[in-house]
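Regression test case RT-17, inverse folding.

Input:
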């Protein structure tokens, strides 16, 4: 594995030619200090409040997308993947209007890009932590493109924008990518690796030293994975907000939206190979699991 020796970029009021060229060559770019410490603290508080709301109301799905549940380091219930998080927080919703995020749509030119707050899985909060009942410690090799095929549309260009809420140095696991693979053929995009099953490190992969507040952008066609932390407990904690920047026809989700097939596969894998069901930690003895129409909150 190689470390990420890219230059340090800052996301200002414009994207420079150097930044555009770097992204188009490698399929990924990292910007330092997108959030300052004050904003970071506020966002972490908002994420905690969103989680508390969903746990109190025993929500299992949002707009057809299942939540992932686990147990925190102190034994309390934890939601390890929240979809459409901005639908429950005005603060998170306002972040999606940040002019610097809107600049990133230029990376999709000549296509017209938009922030997918109500599409795909919306604003996603991933919360990786290693505990005995954790259901989300790593993520196998994949690209973000085949979900379009599952939804019955052709593969369209998209970006996944990650805002990192915890420090994640290279040695603590985290994001790994095969740079340049966004230029691969459709066959290689679909069959280069076994989607989500393969966690094997690749000698050509690139890892990153990421600090809390940093922002990463990767092309949806890029092969990537999330390496498990070698630590357990608090030292393994990594929280990331992911924002889809998408193209094509507008396809918003709602409370009656069906669960996509690839999420059903993930649930089946958990049932076959995991321990407790994902919702077990969050469901009280008499609690009823619910599906919430996020747009009505």
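Golden output:
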């Amino acid at each position: 594995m190689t470390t990420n020796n890219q230059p340090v970029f800052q996301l200002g009021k414009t994207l420079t030619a150097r930044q555009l060229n770097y992204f188009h060559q490698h399929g990924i770019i990292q910007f330092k200090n997108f959030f300052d410490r004050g904003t970071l603290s506020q966002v972490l508080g908002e994420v905690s409040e969103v989680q508390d709301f969903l746990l109190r109301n025993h929500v299992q799905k949002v707009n057809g997308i299942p939540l992932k549940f686990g147990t925190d380091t102190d034994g309390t219930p934890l939601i390890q993947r929240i979809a459409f998080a901005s639908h429950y927080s005005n603060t998170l919703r306002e972040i999606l209007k940040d002019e610097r995020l809107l600049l990133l749509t230029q990376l999709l030119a000549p296509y017209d890009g938009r922030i997918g707050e109500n599409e795909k899985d919306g604003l996603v909060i991933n919360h990786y932590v290693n505990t005995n009942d954790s259901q989300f410690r790593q993520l196998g090799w994949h690209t973000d493109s085949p979900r379009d095929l599952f939804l019955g549309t052709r593969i369209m260009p998209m970006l996944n924008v990650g805002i990192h809420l915890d420090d994640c140095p290279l040695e603590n696991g985290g994001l790994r990518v095969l740079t340049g693979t966004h230029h691969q053929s459709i066959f290689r995009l679909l069959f280069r690796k076994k989607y989500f099953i393969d966690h094997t490190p690749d000698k050509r992969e690139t890892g990153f030293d990421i600090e809390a507040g940093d922002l990463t952008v990767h092309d949806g066609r890029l092969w990537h994975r999330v390496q498990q932390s070698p630590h357990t407990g608090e030292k393994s904690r990594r929280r990331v907000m992911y924002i889809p920047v998408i193209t094509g026809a507008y396809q918003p989700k709602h409370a009656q939206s069906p669960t996509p097939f690839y999420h059903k596969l993930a649930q089946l894998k958990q049932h076959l190979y995991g321990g407790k069901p994902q919702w077990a930690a969050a469901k009280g003895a008499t609690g009823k699991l619910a599906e919430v129409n996020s747009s009505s909150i």
